[in-house]
């Protein structure tokens, strides 16, 4: 019998506990996502080896058996919000990291969570607190935490991240965030963010815009249900670029636990995993072309090729890699070399400033415009973009590790 164990009114989160699962329950719970994204076909080409995905979130548990050895704990930009001695919960961040780079455990890694890019590394950068943490209100009202996301982006770039996943959301943007995103793109880093979970709060012909997803140059991801239609909660507006599964998504939680949940957070993490597969195969491919590979290869495209519900369609890892291979044939554009001074070496093997313009019907991704754009108002409160449905407690005993 399911029973509620906690509720967070601010995020509409309902947590339900369930009895321990059998050893095959977790991986079998991922089958639909694995099939939808065509991951087995994609893994013949790339598993994300050599790529670092920064997870800007609530922190990642490096000891989870499905992530062990793959997590580098980076800076915590929330220090001082929680009272001394209060450890971070790290639930949301661990969940997202597992969808991106979980490698499973047990014989052949066949148990537990398998991420989209199981050979990628994760850089954990803590930039939010979860609703249940005692410092949540302090974090979202104190001026000293106003630009933690911008600082987290710059930190992740300087630490060598190839992809940055931001399953976070707020209502207003700041000039510091806009500039940080421009900095990341200029260094060849792909940014992916959740479109938001306020799809039922429509304002005329669209749902609210959410940042950082709505910034130009960021891949904004909506969520689909099991029929690959827009999930009722998923924001719909012209910032949405692509969509991914976001309902009944199995993921890992701290302490070797497992959770099932829904949200644009999960969809964003899955897309970040695909971006990692592309960057592993084509490490110098510019962010606009990675975005083009994701959009051009999408399936379940809406009538006319684009709509505000699911963007250009539902991502597909195998097709995205094929499209990236085609784009990589245009070497100068794909590497950013055409926009780089040939007399100056590329620092750290990264491309120089990117001036590539990607035009796809209604969406134009221009990296240079990101850095030049002005401020868009004051920061709002940050929130994690997901709803937890139920937890699977310790699905395997220690002898299965």
Automatic annotation (TrEMBL):
The active site is at 57 (charge relay system), 92 (charge relay system), 265 (charge relay system). The chain crosses the membrane at residues 364-389. Gene3D superfamilies: Peptidase S8/S53 domain. Keywords: Hydrolase, Membrane, Protease, Serine protease, Signal, Transmembrane, Transmembrane helix. Residues 1-23 form the signal peptide. Pfam families: Peptidase_S8. InterPro entries: Peptidase_S8/S53_dom, Peptidase_S8/S53_dom_sf, Peptidase_S8_Asp-AS, Peptidase_S8_subtilisin-like, Peptidase_S8_subtilisin-rel. Residues 48-313 form the Peptidase S8/S53 domain. Belongs to the peptidase S8 family. This is S8 family serine peptidase. It comes from Actinomadura luzonensis.
């Amino acid at each position: 019998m399911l029973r509620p164990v906690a509720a967070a009114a601010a995020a509409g989160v309902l947590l339900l506990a369930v009895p321990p699962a059998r050893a095959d329950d977790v991986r079998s719970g991922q089958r639909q996502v694995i099939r939808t994204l065509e991951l087995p076909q994609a893994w013949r080409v790339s598993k994300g080896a050599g790529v670092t995905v920064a997870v800007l979130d609530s922190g990642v548990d490096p000891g989870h058996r499905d992530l062990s050895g793959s997590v580098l704990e980076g800076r915590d930009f929330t220090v001082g919000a929680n009272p001394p001695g209060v450890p971070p919960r790290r639930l949301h961040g661990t969940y997202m990291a597992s969808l991106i780079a979980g490698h499973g455990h047990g014989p052949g890694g066949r148990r537990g969570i398998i991420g989209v890019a199981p050979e990628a590394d994760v850089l954990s950068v803590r930039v939010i607190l979860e609703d249940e943490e005692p410092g949540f209100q302090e974090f979202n009202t104190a001026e000293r935490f106003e630009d933690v996301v911008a600082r987290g982006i710059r930190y992740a770039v300087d630490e060598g991240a190839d992809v940055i996943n931001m399953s976070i959301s707020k209502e207003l943007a700041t000039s510091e965030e806009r500039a940080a995103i421009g900095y990341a793109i200029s260094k060849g880093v792909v940014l992916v963010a959740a479109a938001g979970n306020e799809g039922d709060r429509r304002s005329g012909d669209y749902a609210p815009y959410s940042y950082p997803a709505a910034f130009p140059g960021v891949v904004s991801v909506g969520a689909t249900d099991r029929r690959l239609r827009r999930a009722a909660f998923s924001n719909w507006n012209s910032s949405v670029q692509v969509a991914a599964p976001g309902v009944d998504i199995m993921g890992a939680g701290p302490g070797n636990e497992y959770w099932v949940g829904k949200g644009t957070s999960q969809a964003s993490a899955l897309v970040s995993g695909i971006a990692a597969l592309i960057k592993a195969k084509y490490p110098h491919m510019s962010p606009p072309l990675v975005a083009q590979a994701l959009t051009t290869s999408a399936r379940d495209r809406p009538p006319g090729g684009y709509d505000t519900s699911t963007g250009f369609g539902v991502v597909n890892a195998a097709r995205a890699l094929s499209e990236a291979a085609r784009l990589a044939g245009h070497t100068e554009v794909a590497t950013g070399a055409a926009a780089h001074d040939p007399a100056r070496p590329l620092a750290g093997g990264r491309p120089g400033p990117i001036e590539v313009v990607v035009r796809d019907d209604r969406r134009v991704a221009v990296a240079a415009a990101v850095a030049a754009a002005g401020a868009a108002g004051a920061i709002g409160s940050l929130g994690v973009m997901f709803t937890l449905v139920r937890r699977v407690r310790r699905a395997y005993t220690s002898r299965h590790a």
